[in-house]
Amino acid sequence: MALTAVIRVPSRALLRPWARLRDAALGWIEPAGGGGVEVSAQRFASQKVLVEPDPAAGVAVMKFKNPPVNSLSLELLTELVISLEKLENDKTVRGVVLTSDCPGIFSAGLDLTEMCGRNPAHYAEYWKAVQEMWLRLYLSNLVLVAAINGASPAGGCLIALTCDYRVMADNPKYCIGLNETLLGIVAPFWFKDNLVNTIGHRASERALQLGLLFPPTEALQVGMVDKVVPKDQVQSTALSVLAQWMAIPDHARQLTKNMMRKPTADRLLKQRDADIQNFVSFISRDSIQKSLQMYLEKLKQKKG
Ligand SMILES: CCCCC/C=C\C/C=C\C/C=C/C(=O)SCCNC(=O)CCNC(=O)[C@H](O)C(C)(C)COP(=O)(O)OP(=O)(O)OC[C@H]1O[C@@H](n2cnc3c(N)ncnc32)[C@H](O)[C@@H]1OP(=O)(O)O
Question: Which ligand 1 atom minimizes the distance to the CA of 296?
Fold first, then answer.
């Protein structure tokens, strides 16, 4: 990856402790004596989220890279939020394409191993990170376009739903949807709200109860994605769409986005702790743990 952009990062001594953790996560190194440091955009490429900025165009491409299936581990979620925050603060960037570096998979959704056989404190930490990811993406001031270049179940679909526009590859093997009920679990209310805001109430009711995973043409029909194109055109189409959205003055577009989305985000913001408690007690149930374990086993057996 050839990247040339230069980003100014303040001295670590001036940053809060969490920012030092962030620097470590992103692999930024401050030279001895440090009074601020210039890092090349290559350093911006962390392990599980690659960011390719194009300052001339005012955009960046963010690629998830957590093989084999881009499951949303705690580590990936943390890097995603940090990378997004950095882009939000970068005055040269106004729009971002979200896509995958893993062939054939956009994201397999939440990491089942983070929700199985762990303790309540871990479940709480994990759920807080999932909430944070959703809130940051859903309320982002940037134009976000999803370039869905592979399967996108559950949490993968949620990421796509937070975007302002979704372009999907036309391979009928790639499916997208909130399939939680197939795992014996329930999509949280804010997943549901995001879906209802995208495809409407009746279509959501059907899709959520049946845990429907839509192939691209059906996803287009129901309004879950906005455009279906051949696989090799997904990213270029997403970049063209980004350019169209970026032709609108930022302040007017951002205020409009906020007006449309804030009430939905506020529903979660008003009850974040209660939502974490609900998740922890739900996921800790023996019956739910059994369902998830059986589902994981089925995924593993599929190979053999
Ligand atoms: C009433 C109160 C309610 C409160 C709310 C409570 C609960 C709700 C909580 C959460 C909502 C959940 C959201 C989610 O996102 S759950 C995750 C859902 N995801 C899926 O169902 C996708 C599962 N995966 C697949 O279907 C396939 O893997 C794939 C993505 C289509 C890719 O298929 P492929 O054939 O290419 O790969 P494999 O299937 O062979 O998988 C390779 C490897 O990856 C492992 N794996 C797959 N998905 C996950 C995952 N999500 N998490 C962790 N690991 C995953 C798979 O087991 C294989 O592992 P192996 O060790 O065998 O290599």
Answer: 57
**Residue in 40, 159, 63 with CA at minimum distance from that of residue 108:** 159
Architecture of the domain delimited by 44-302: Alpha-Beta Complex (3.90)
Kindly list the domain boundaries of the chain, sorted by start residue: 44-302
Digits of tens for pLDDT over the chain (304 positions)?
Answer: 333 333 333 333 333 333 433 444 444 333 233 333 333 344 455 699 999 999 999 999 999 999 999 999 999 999 999 999 999 999 999 999 999 999 999 999 999 999 999 999 999 999 999 999 999 999 999 999 999 999 999 999 999 999 999 999 999 999 999 999 999 999 999 999 999 999 999 999 999 999 999 999 999 999 999 999 999 999 999 999 999 999 999 999 999 999 999 999 999 999 999 999 999 999 999 999 999 999 999 999 987 6
Q: How many CB atoms lie within 10 A of CB 108?
A: 22
**DSSP assignment letter at 94:** -
Q: What is the pTM of this model?
A: 0.89
Provide the ipTM: 0.98
* CA-angle at 290, arms to 113 and 126, nearest 5°: 35
Q: Is 155 a catalytic residue?
A: yes
Mutational pocket test of ligand 1: of 280, 299, 301, the residue with most ligand atoms within 8 Å of the beta carbon: 299
Inter-residue contact 44 to 51 (CB < 8 Å): yes
* Secondary structure letter of residue 247 according to DSSP: T
